[in-house]
Amino acid sequence: MTENIIKLLKQYGFTEYESKAYLSLSSLISATADEISKNSGVPRSKIYSTLELLEKKGFIHIKESRPLVYIMIQPEESLKNYKNKLLDDFHIIENYITDLYDSKIPKQNTPIFSIEDEKQILQKEEDILKRTKKVLCIRLGFVIPSEVGKLRRTISKLLKKGVQIKILTLKECIVNNTTVNIIDIFEGLDVEIKYANIPAARLIIRDYKEMILTFAENSSKSIDNSNMIGLVNTNSTIISNYTSAFNKQWGKM
After folding, report:
1. Cα(32)–Cα(183) distance, rounded to whole angstroms?
2. If 0-12 CB within 10 Å is exposed, 13-18 middle and 19+ buried, where does residue 66 land?
3. pLDDT (tens digit, 9 = 90+) per residue, 192-228?
4. How many CB atoms lie within 10 A of CB 179?
């Protein structure tokens, strides 16, 4: 178990020596450098610099005495602070890379790739929806019964962020012999919506930069979502064509 914890600590910014010294002091609570070195296996030549780094990271307190005494700060407090700092830093990285990616999408001829696993398709659709900043075009040829609540919540959050949303959809669909009333999903939401006869496919275009086109099998009576396939694309020419087709159909309604 100790080895596993050391591996995890190293994944989150601890060195090998820091991990061992920190775990050692977690059991000793308060100790001198010599005691921590013997207990942890960290060489005496490295223990002082290691403990100083742990203090800078906010995990231990150094008591000025002869010899110095190293005291464990309550893990619930120190680890929580460290976790929040990591999350804050990660959000900065995430926002920067996402903005950089979005700025480069229209200039790159990225390949289309397919997803054939239902859970992965639904997750990809959800990710694309959540990344929308300004404009969202959705064409719904079917809605899976299990995703009704999540879809409504996601659209509601985007509306609160000021995203302009247009939805072309059926009034209802039958998936796996279960009737889904799509009108009810968006009832009470301030969203632009028009109803039309749409085949068993759905289209999501976000900010004219990224899209996913998802197909499902369709019999004369019910849609079968067991063999769904999603096509993800960021090619500006393809997106432009699908957006034009969407807007053309929207204008006719």
Report:
1. 69
2. exposed
3. 999 988 888 999 999 998 999 999 888 767 888 778 9
4. 10
Six-digit token pair at 63?
């008591």
pLDDT at 108 over 80: no
Convert the pLDDT of each residue in 124-135 to its tens digit: 999 999 999 999
Beta strands in 40-183 (DSSP E): 60-63, 69-72, 113-115, 135-140, 164-169, 172-175, 178-181
Output the six-digit token pair for 224.
């079968």
Give the Cα separation of 205 and 189 in Å (integer).
20
> Residue 180 is encoded by which pair of tokens?
């889904």
Distances in Å between the Cα of 59 and the Cα atoms of 50, 76, 79, 251 are 12, 10, 7, 61
Rounded to whole angstroms, the maximal C-alpha distance in the chain is 85
CB 146 within 8 A of CB 175: no
Give dist(CA 114, CA 228) in Å, integer. 10
The answer to whether the CB of 211 falls within 8 A of the CB of 201 is no
DSSP 125-160: HHHHHHT-SSEEEEEES---GGGHHHHHHHHHHHHH
Distance CA 220, CA 82 (A): 57
